[in-house]
Hints:
This protein has two domains: 6-39 and 89-311, von Willebrand factor, type A domain (Rossmann fold, 3-Layer(aba) Sandwich); 44-74 and 320-358. The protein has helices at residues 6-12, 108-122, 153-162, 176-197, 225-244, 264-267, 288-294, 306-314; strands at 24-26, 44-53, 68-72, 75-77, 79-86, 95-102, 128-139, 142-145, 150-152, 203-209, 247-252, 299-300, 319-327, 335-343, 349-351, 355-358. It is α+β, with helices and mostly antiparallel strands.
Amino acid sequence: MRYSRRLALAVCTLSVSATLATAQVAAAAPKSSVPITAPVSTAGTLDLDVVVSGHNGKPISGLQQQDFTVYMDKKQQPITSFRAVEATATSAAPIETILLIDTVNTRFSNVAYERQQVDQFLKRNNGKLSQPITLVILGDKGIQITPQASRDGNQLAAFLDKAEIAIRDIGREAGFYGWTEEFQLSASGLERLAAYEQTRPGRKLLIWISPGWPLLSGPEVELSYKDQEGLFASLVGLSASLRKARITLSSVDPLGTADGVSYRTTFYEEFTKGVPSAKKMQIGNLALQVLALQSGGRVLNSNNDVAGEIATAASDADAFYILKINSPAAEHPNDYRDISVKVDKPGLTARTRTGYYAQP
């Protein structure tokens, strides 16, 4: 059976009219057919948050501007500004870590383990967190968010313990239409969170604890060009929102080795390349893991130590670099530009945003 993607178009054209509050935020299905973000000129400078790590994956500090080379569409770009940041328990580093517990895409039977692992992470070091953390819970009915970021892990654990997580109304036994609704709630939640974070200063490290939403791509899924245009508009808007909010997204799979043989743990790799135009668009290009890698974050799965994986993702806040480069005006809307950063030190790799859509 082949599915029409008219439904996918409605799913993916998102609205940002909702505002996150400190209590409960409605996650009603968006009905707008307007792209996520109206195109705004990107001429000027482009900020890149760069994490450098060695073979053990831990962030490396102490590097200088001359150690970095930035390429845009494979052409070297001058670095116009450079700043090295090291976060400590007493520093006021321009970064906030957001832990998001996704109960939309996690079976109810696995949510308890997911919460237990988050609780374990929060209570490490007697609950003394190295950086401010905001706790977010995404569910079928909306978003719950802590009133403010906190370094008190015990306080955040108490919030998590009291949070009500209802049994999911949407089940994967509903088949294709259940999957599209999961996708809709997830993508809408990410967009609204990004819109909210644009109003807040500094870099944000968003750790999305979830096996990921359905990729909805494959030989049995057909897209018309009109569908591809709508999906592409959503991708461009979401990419712009994450960039403006300075969000680096990381994906942590709470299912551990139980999900190790799932297609989700590798299938997303087919969609990680930047999408230059609507005719190249597939729904898999909006996968959680794909968005994470393209934002400069991590994809962590197939490990039962979920608390440890969260700590690994959170370590990206310990040391990073802020580079500025020029962003020439585009000649046409949604001009995709590939970005890469190289480090002139053996054994070190740099992670940052892999591209952006330039506007006239």
